[in-house]
Amino acid sequence: MPEPILDIRNLTKTYKRGTTALAGVDLTIQPGEIFALLGPNGAGKTTLIGAVCGLVRPSGGEIFAFGEDLQRHWRRLRRRIGLVPQELSFDMFDTVIRSVRYSRGMFGLPADERRIEDVLRSLSLWDKRDSRIRELSGGMKRRVLIAKALAHDPDLLFLDEPTAGVDVELRRDMWRQIDALRARGTTIILTTHYIEEAEEMADRVGVIDQGRILLVDDKTSMMAKLGRMEARFALAQAMGEIPAGLTDLPLTLEDDGRTLVYRGGDGQGQGRAQVAELAQRLTRQNIGFNGLETRQSSLEDIFVNLVERNEEHHTEIEGVVA
């Protein structure tokens, strides 16, 4: 396996008032992959990105980028890292092209008008190149942020909620740009509230909550390990309780006993097999049903379940301590 492009070891961050934003994060990112970091608001996503990009000083731990200690070789290594932050932050009176040129020069790279033009065209900004940033719409301002992050051709690119609150057209442009960056070998770490985007674009997914990484896995493996099947049987007659011959299965009654719901399986075919078995057992017991709907867990379902379980765990611990 190649050397990781980013290796984070036991990273912690506690703010002066005692708030813990990162609680011993370990994370390894491989060259060329697209990694999606999912987590609720306040989970530590932006703090983690800020620690790598020099915006947050960690309380402890180590960060190695491109095989070198990031703290020791900060100035040289930072040139190879790009960031698209959540917040819009630039000189609103500057023009688009000047702002993007400045970002490239800030990292010590020579002027390259062809590269600047390529970046602006890829984000549909070329026609707005001489416009002042304050004259642009919110979506166009977001495009300028992305262009500034790409201007110095980073090897590692952070996208912190890059498509939050933007129009569908920009979202499509953003993902086209990500495809192009992947083809060039750029490693991308993104945070997003649009879990379907992570499900479609990412190679691996990590879930963070309350400053801790709950799970990191290949997207397909995660779905296989944690996925569940849901099947809803519309019963011909309402039930008051689960029949004795079915209590070994994970079943519940809903809709005043008119719907028998199965939720279970292991994401690897067990759920489908049990649903088929359940249908046969209902028929043998003369329990009629006139409709069946099945649904496999999505990445969003897995994410929500992980976060809810983590919050319940912390609530239990706090209760014991109290």
Automatic annotation (TrEMBL):
Keywords: ATP-binding, Nucleotide-binding, Transport. CDD domains: ABC_DR_subfamily_A. Pfam families: ABC_tran. It comes from the Bacteria. Signal peptide: none annotated. The keyword Kinase does not apply. One of its GO terms (molecular function) is ATP hydrolysis activity. Residues 6-235 form the ABC transporter domain. PROSITE patterns: ABC_TRANSPORTER_1, ABC_TRANSPORTER_2. This is Multidrug ABC transporter ATP-binding protein. It comes from Croceibacterium mercuriale.
